[in-house]
Structure formats: structure tokens, C-alpha cells
Amino acid sequence: MEFGLSEEQRILQDSVQRFFSEHASLELVRNIAETPSAFDSALWAAISDLGILGTLVPEHYGGSGLDFFDAFIILQAAGRVTAPVPLAGAMVAAPVALLSHATASQRETYLPRLAAGESRVALAMSHVISERDEAGLSLNAGKLKGKTLFAIDAGAADIFLIAADSSTWVWVEAASKGVSLTYLPTVDKTRCVAEISFDNTPAEILGEPGQAGQSIVRVLDAMRIALAADTLGAAEVMVEKAITYAGEREQFNRPIGSFQAVKHMCADMVAALEPARALAWYAAHAFDHVPEDARAMACHARAHMAEVATQIARTAVEVHGGMGFTDLLGLHYWFKRIGLNRQLLGSPEQVRQEAAQVQGWV
Q1: Are 225 and 71 in contact (CB under 8 A)?
Q2: Tens digit of pLDDT for each residue in 112-157?
Q3: Strands 136-140 and 179-183, how do they pair?
Q4: Planar angle of CA 27, 71, 243, nearest 5 degrees
Q5: For the chain, which residues make up each domain, given as ranges?
């Protein structure tokens, strides 16, 4: 059995990689990273025109109706340039939530907007994964009260998709009364994470209240695979840059890549990344096509990719020596993206514990 990209998927991969390389240069990333919201409206408009935001949206709602694996390819390409755009919420979390648990009217209203790029969605569900004393939400008579932490892609969002608890989705307009947003500083300035407070804020419940448990788990799986895709793209570039630098940088009148120690460092990075890529690809495939493996594979892919990419990031910087720490090369953008992705929606240790529970080991 050959498990690889189809011709159509290779075309998609080439297309989106070319798009992001042309529209999200390192200089643009630098500039956007200096803004509080880490968002550029021109880049978002170009992405909307490309049509990738409707990847998971069925055709009769204005989308492409593609598989989750196709979304993985796009997110991997975005990770290669640490694209400062809120893709994950609008392209992955919101469509998966609406398609798995929403009324027909809600789908008719919101899915076309997502496909057209008219809605930018922040995902808030960290309190479902691990409770914090200072955070928590209550929903009463359609009014939301409380605080949620680490909302992903919140800076430019006009919609908040929130797991009010482990079994209820709510859809909140960012401009609603009683909403207060506080940016949370992280190592990665290209992705905005925020604390959102609500004070009797109007909130629309998606689907039946108290019946969204499976949908919330499915979105969590989707987002963890999405983070693995983003991390994979960043790790790929760090390996490529390290190998290129090792072939160009000279010491003692010879390229440093000719020294055995550096060769081993580069070879170790490639050898670690290839099986991690295969695991993440299978997780993306299983999400749609192998339901009995989907939950465990999402956890394993997310945790393993985080660990492998962390080691690659460190090694790639070491190969570059002192230059690896400068802003000139920009390695720190990929390094920091990998670091933030490692912690979002559960650390590798937490996610492995979930995988063990899913597989009946604990």
C-alpha cells in the first residue's frame, strides 16, 4: 500500500506553498508580529480570494467540501512561513463544530460566511482541558458570564466559538455587549492568544444545549491535528535552513557541513521528522476515514510532533551557531511558533495521558 499525496493534493500543496511564500515574506511577518493583534487585513483578503477558507465547508454552502487531510496540507504550508493569520479557527474549528453540532438554520447562516472569509473565528476551549481557579463560564438564559483563557487567534476575531462547558457550544459576536479582551503575551508574536471576559453577554447556543460533548471532542481532535500540521511546516523549514547553512558556512576553509558532527546533527533531524510526518498524515487521514483510530491518533500526532519539533528547533539553531540567535535570519519565528504550539490545547504529557485513556491503558 502506498500512502502519499494524490496528484490533486500535490497540486494543492504546490499552490498554497507558492501562495504563502509570495504573500507572507519574512519581512511581512516581522511587521505583523509587532502589532498587538498579529493580523493583516490585506493578507486575510488574499487568503479569502484563494478560496482555502472553505476547504471543509460542503459545496452547497459555498465551500470546497474537501477532506480534513486537504486542510492539513494547507495548514502545513502556512506553518512553513509562520503565517500570522487566524486560519485554524475559521478554516477548521468552526466548520467542524457547525457540521457536527448545529441546527440547519445555523449552518445555512454561518458556513457560507466562513467559506467567503467574512468571519474570523477565535476558539476558546482551554478550560475544558484544564480548569483554572481564576477562569470559568456560566450560561443562563442565553447570557454568558465569566472568563476564558488562551483563546486562539483572538486578536482579529469577530466571532468567538466557545465551549461553555464540556457539552455546550456557544457562538458569540465579538462586538457584543459585555465582552472584554485582554491580550496574553507569549513567546510567539505571530499568533494572538487572549483572555476573554463576559458580563451577561448575549450568546447563541449551537444545536441542542448540553448535547455537544462529542462535537467538542471532535473539534479538539481537529485542532490538535491542525497544530501538528502547523508545527510540521515550521520544523521542515528549520531543517532545510540548517542544511543549507551547513553547506554555505565555512570554517577552516571548508563548509561546516563536511564535519562529521554537523552531518550527524542534520541527519538526526531528518530521521526524526520523517516518521513524525507519517504519523501526523495518518492522524489527518483517520479523522475522516478511520473513526476507530481518530481520537488516539490525534493525541499521538500532536504530542509526538511537539516533542520532535522542539528538538529540531534546538538543533537547527545550534547548527547556525551564533547566527541562529539573530533577527536577521528569523529562525526565532519558527522556533517560537513550535514552542507555543507545544502548549496550546494541552501539553504533550497531558495529551499522551488522554491517548492512554482512550486506548484503555489507564
Answers
A1: no
A2: 999 999 999 999 998 788 767 677 888 898 899 999 989 999 988 9
A3: unpaired
A4: 50
A5: 7-115, 121-205, 213-358
* Eight-class DSSP state of 91: I
The SS3 of residue 89 is helix
Asked if 324 and 317 count as a contact pair (C-beta separation under 8 A), the reply is yes
Domain 121-205, CATH: 2.40.110.10
Cβ-contact 189, 183 below 8 angstroms = no
Which three cell numbers, joined as nine digits, stand for 9? 493534493
Q: CA-CA distance, 276 to 158, in Å (whole number)? A: 35
The per-residue pLDDT for range 248-271, each reduced to its tens digit, is 998 898 999 999 999 999 999 999
Q: C-alpha dihedral over 304, 55, 336, 245, to 10 degrees?
A: 90
Distances (CA, A) of 67 to 7, 10, 56, 74: 15, 14, 7, 11
Cβ atoms of 42 and 28 within 8 Å: the answer is: no
N-term to C-term CA, the chain: 33
Q: How far is CA 35 from the centre of its chain?
A: 20
* Bridge partners, 168 (sequence order): 165
Q: Which of 233, 201, 211 is closest to 88 using CA atoms? A: 233
C-alpha cell at 147: 472568563
- pTM, 2 dp: 0.95
Task: Give me the torsion for CA of 130, 174, 116, 285, rounded to 10°.
Answer: 0
Backbone φ, ψ for residue 47 (5° rounding): -65, -40
264 close to 253: Cβ distance less than 8 angstroms = no
Taking domain 213-358, whether its CATH number is 1.20.120.140 is answered by no
Decide the pairing of beta strands 179-183 and 168-173: unpaired
Radius of gyration (Cα) for the chain, nearest Å? 20
The three cell numbers of residue 357 are 485513556
- Strand pairing of 159-165 and 168-173? antiparallel
Paired sense of beta strands 121-124 and 159-165, if any: parallel
The CATH code for residues 7-115 is 1.10.540.10
Give, for 151, the enclosing helix (H) or strand (E).
strand 143-152
